User: What shape does this take?
Amino acid sequence: MNSKHAALSEKFIADEPRTNWHDETLWFVREKRDKATHGLPEWEQLREWASQIKNHTLSNLNAYLTEFEEKAKANGIKVHWAADAQEHNEIVHSIIKKNNIQKIVKSKSMLTEECHLNDYLQEKGLEVVDTDLGERIVQFRKEPPSHIVLPAIHLKKQDVSDTFHEHLNTEKGNNDPQYLTEAARQHLRSKFIEADLAITGVNFAIAETGGFVVCTNEGNADMGAHTAKVHIACMGFEKIIPKAEHLSVFLRILARSATGQAITTYSSHFHKPRPDQEMHLVIVDNGRSRQLGRADFKNSLKCIRCAACFNTCPVYRRSGGHSYHTTTAGPIGSILNPNLDMKTNADLPFASTLCGSCSNVCPVKIDIHEQLWKWRQEIVKEGYVSSDKKTAMKGMSYMFSNPALYRFVGIIGRWMMRNFPNLLKSKHNLWFKQREMPEAPKKSFRDWYIDHQK
Amino acid sequence: MTVALFIPCYIDQLYPKVGIATLELLEKLGCDVVFPLGQTCCGQPMANSGFSGLTNGCNKNFIANFSGFDYIVAPSGSCVLHLKEHLQDDKNPEKAHQIKNSLFELTEFLTDIIKVDTLDARFPFKVGIHNSCHGQRGLNLASMTEKNTPSFSKPEQLLKMVGGIELSYPKRKDECCGFGGTFCVFEEAVSVKMGKDRITEHEANDIDYITAGDSSCLMHLEGILNRKGSPIKTIHIAEILNSSF
Ligand code: SF4
Assistant: This one.
């Protein structure tokens, strides 16, 4: 099976009513974001501040990370550094083993998804229960999340009902959201109570205090962390911000961009472990320092994972998260993933019309669509492009460099289009599959112009 | 005022009427229009496919044809944006620089340079406006729904000067049509779906025409409209601004 974006999205679109529903559901989120942001006169200023704080931090990362580590340690948090996904998973596993723990809950953390932590622990015979409702649903279904904020957005009520019927024994065919959420709540409650260890993500780590902030709408990070003996928070190193006062910018832009809420329901500040608790923080690189070294792509690390660029992306809305065949889909995924594996993800920067809407919504002002363009250049330079495409481009380049040849090809082309239109009406012509060909005029504009001058 | 006219390759070959309308319109407004005969393509098809390394020939040819003009005007936001961002000449950087500064998309040239405030045009039809992304978001021809900034639109400002016209926008005012250069074939399914959705929204406004500042968007929408046998036609904004019914 072809697992590239174009083929996977074609499969997705084959169910057109479902595609329409997916598109409209996410567009609704984009509209909520518009309402929340257009109501704030200082919105564009907040974006600018957020961008500048992040730029400054990325340029002084070393200092801020060191400061953060010192403060966090002084607070009693155990800090670990992981160079890559493997090391991250090993660290988490070693903490679990040392404490002899069996029951683990985890709130949403895109980093642990990126590192495939669940699979790793499962191989070691450990079960991790995802406690974010959407993540729990996709976990039951053994699917990856399709969206970084709304992991199960590709599923309809009916799908959730079927899944819960199978795993939670709910009534077959009962699609009532309230009934289904209540079932999930009861199920998760018992998991929280049983858990000995809670894993959470980190939205913001504050250098000056050594504390960190976790944002959720369900309170599931808190439920986990507040009951478990051990709390492990995992973060990519770009989550750092210099000062607590900077939260007054980031907490205002995050939820507005993500869902159109003024602020996430829970923005929980963790500073030190409870007296009877162990608190660990794993700070992960996993390709980030390589990205930091790429001048053109460095500022992709400003990302705060709000997913506004997903919701606005006309391609994402019509192709679904799984068509991006990576943990982080959407426009931001298409500029982060080539850094992790350029060959496998060579299709992603091309899965865009470069319309620029993503860059406009991005609350930290990442020039996403320009980076998509730049990745295309890199990918071609590295040779991850089909030889057919290369030959075609070379031919085109040669033709356009030679005006007389261009005109000659134009005359022949238009003549062929007029006289042998059926030649182009073939199944190999992807334009023609669902679109008519334009009509070829007898004269080009240049021909007309020359006649007109006479 | 002398204006050099850049007619992008696919307009030259497939939509000469757009070039003719642009030229006639500029002449009506008092410009001396020159069309450099050796022009071809801006290089965008290669660059957007990742082959900016293959655009040297296009750059050279463009510079050879368009050096030394005070104003260069093209009826395509997309090609203008590409040239403004990527035209280069390592041997003569000032030449490329001068061209970039002289280059205008048609509607911005009319509103900002000639400062047109009336037009002798009539187009008694219902027209849906499509915001072409590169003109709108790239060249700032109109305010964008994503941003919290005052609303304006250079194309709309001009269309409002046309007699008898009835204007409308689709529900999502500035969503991409899905053309996207080679995207339209390499991502055929998404491309067509995006176009179909734009058309559905325009249809809800019961229009006769869809207009835009880029013939590439219109070619894509026209292909879909014709396949479904729709009575809606596409028309470049230059043709409306130049029309007399
Ligand atoms: S790139 Fe910007 S819009 Fe997209 S998820 Fe990151 S912060 Fe949000």
Observations:
- The pocket of iron/sulfur cluster is lined by residues A 257, 303-309, 332, 361-364, 366, 368 (CB under 6 Å).
- Chain B touches chain A through 75 residues (CB under 8 Å).
